[in-house]
């Protein structure tokens, strides 16, 4: 897979290292000579250019990229790059970094963004996930906000405790994708039984999350 990453700061370089370790082709774009250092990430290609200029993106052969990652520290740059990647170069998938949570509403398909990653929001969600039992925690959005990854920690008073997963009627457009129990993650089967303290991970559409929460928060009689 060929991945083009705009922004060779700490975030962009970290993503590049992970992708290179998984044997993907990576090109880093940055307009700062200081940010582009071949010795920092062996195996990565580099391009000194403005990620918002068509000439630079053409030089990067963006039309050959499978994924473009807009990882700069400027939300305007990330939005413009995502839009250009989609409309001018036909890139199949764009992943864009959100620096300011107030700008999250802009990061959708209108600006060519397939996946928006907000570090502040993700950190908040992880804090909530660590301390909240009995609440539905939104971890991440997918498919331009049409689906979300949600986490729920089962309370010992929950009606779900001792229920077979196959017997639970989850809302439409909602899938239980993983369970973490005693620090071990596994893919749930219909015969698995819910236990108190289980962390349940769902993919659910936004309009079904209220129904999902009502189901999960129901207490045993």
Automatic annotation (TrEMBL):
Annotated RCK C-terminal domain residues: 137-218
Start and end residues of each RCK N-terminal domain: 1-117
Keyword ATP-binding: no
SUPFAM superfamilies the record matches: NAD(P)-binding Rossmann-fold domains, TrkA C-terminal domain-like
Pfam families: TrkA_C, TrkA_N
Keywords: Ion transport, NAD, Potassium, Potassium transport, Transport
PANTHER family from the UniProt entry: POTASSIUM CHANNEL PROTEIN 2-RELATED-RELATED, TRK SYSTEM POTASSIUM UPTAKE PROTEIN TRKA
Protein name: Trk system potassium uptake protein TrkA
């Amino acid at each position: 897979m060929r991945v083009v990453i705009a922004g060779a700061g700490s975030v962009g370089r970290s993503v590049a290292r992970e992708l290179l370790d998984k044997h993907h082709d990576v090109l880093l774009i940055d307009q700062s000579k200081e940010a582009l250092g071949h010795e920092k990430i062996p195996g990565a290609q580099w391009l000194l250019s403005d990620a918002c200029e068509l000439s630079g993106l053409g030089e990067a052969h963006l039309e050959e990229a499978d994924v473009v990652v807009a990882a700069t520290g400027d939300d305007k740059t990330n939005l413009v790059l995502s839009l250009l990647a989609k409309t001018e170069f036909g890139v199949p998938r764009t992943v864009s970094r959100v620096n300011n949570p107030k700008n999250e509403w802009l990061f959708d398909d209108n600006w060519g963004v397939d996946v928006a990653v907000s570090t502040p929001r993700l950190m908040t969600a992880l804090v909530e996930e660590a301390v909240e039992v009995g609440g539905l925690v939104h971890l991440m959005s997918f498919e331009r906000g049409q689906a979300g990854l949600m986490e729920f920690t089962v309370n010992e008073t929950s009606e779900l405790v001792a229920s077979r997963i196959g017997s639970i009627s989850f809302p439409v457009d909602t899938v239980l994708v993983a369970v973490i129990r005693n620090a071990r993650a596994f893919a749930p089967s219909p015969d698995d039984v819910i236990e108190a303290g289980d962390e349940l991970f769902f993919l659910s559409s936004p309009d079904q999350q209220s129904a999902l929460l009502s189901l999960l928060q129901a207490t045993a009689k």
